[in-house]
Amino acid sequence: MIENLKELLSEKDILLLGFGAEGRSTYSLLQQLKVHKSLGIADMSKTLVAPEGVALHLGEGYLDSLSNYDLIIKSPGIPLPKSLWEKHRSQLTSQIEIFLKYYKGRTIGLTGTKGKSSTCSMLYSMLSTLPKKVHFLGNIGLPVLSALERLSGDDIVLLELSSHQLHHIDSAPDIAILLNFYPEHLEYYGTLEEYRAAKFSILQKGSEPNVAFVNSELFQATEKFHSERNFIWVSPTECDFETPPHLSLTHQRINAHFAYEVASTFGITKSTAAQALKSCKIPPHRTEEVGVFNGIRFINDSAATIPEATIAALQGFPETKTLIVGGFDRGVDLGSLRSLLDQTLHLQIICIPETGKKLFESLRNAQPNSERLHMAKDLENAVQIAKHVTPTGATCLFSPSAASYHAYKNFSERGEHFRRLVSESKET
Hints:
With 428 residues, the chain is an alpha/beta fold. The chain is built from 15 helices and 17 strands. The chain is globular.
């Protein structure tokens, strides 16, 4: 693969579009190979300091320099107007595109609106029982080009892939996994159709075995791809083997079922899969208990950025008496969550701007005299309210149903803040 990379990069004027974790790892690789002609970095941030010999294009006009480069390696999530995509399509690529095109070992790519990280973690635990080396890279792991030195052509690479990483790719993994699909990231893509196109691009034709494991509820939605791959339809039901206590919630057992359906094609048995899950570590901020205050159990589900995730968490914790909800408004329909909350009259509901304000007003219009609705100014205020209104022995669930960008860098930063707010007064 290194030789392919050298050929791709040789004597080219290269632009790194975005200089976060992935952009920096691409820069490190370019410095190791030293075959490019010149190098530039384009980023919205105005505070980047240029490495020696690198041209900087920063701030509002950072996209004005695209025509000056032969190859543009774009980081995921960097917004690019459709007109610029079309104009510079022949120059544009990404780490994922490069990796999928040139890596000769087995690649498994997994995407979905919710459950990606958890299901990948479960599948990685199962596949790690094989005699082959297995690597977990991508959206939550290492940037793929950072791992080249440790890979061989006999290895299995499991890739967690976000819609941003899949957007406009022309290559695809050997084995594609599509867990589910719900509206999200509409502030970035503009339309649901554009978001769907990004997600479903994982289903385009790949190398052998060219298999796609897809949620059976998406049969009609994926019809245009049915001739591209060998489809295996997976019902979103719970696995039929025992899972450890930390993976016992309904949505976790559904994810375990999906992971096993893939693992079984590698010869892994149910007993082996069940044993592997005992040591499986789910990433933080996903229905994790973070502390107890005056007998109140606090659950951090900051990764719940869509209503469906919050609904699943409420179903998983029926003892919940308080819900903290709300965040950045991306235009996602909250109707399904509102319908559930209308019926859950025992629940104290603490709302946070921006989406929380909409939810609060909608619920209050239906229940004008209700004392269970609370409007908090921010997360800190919400936790303070929760400590007063949640009865002893009950659970307070922080499951925002929204992104965090109006107040935090990402859901992880938001979850860490919630953890700190609880830990400041939790029982030891």
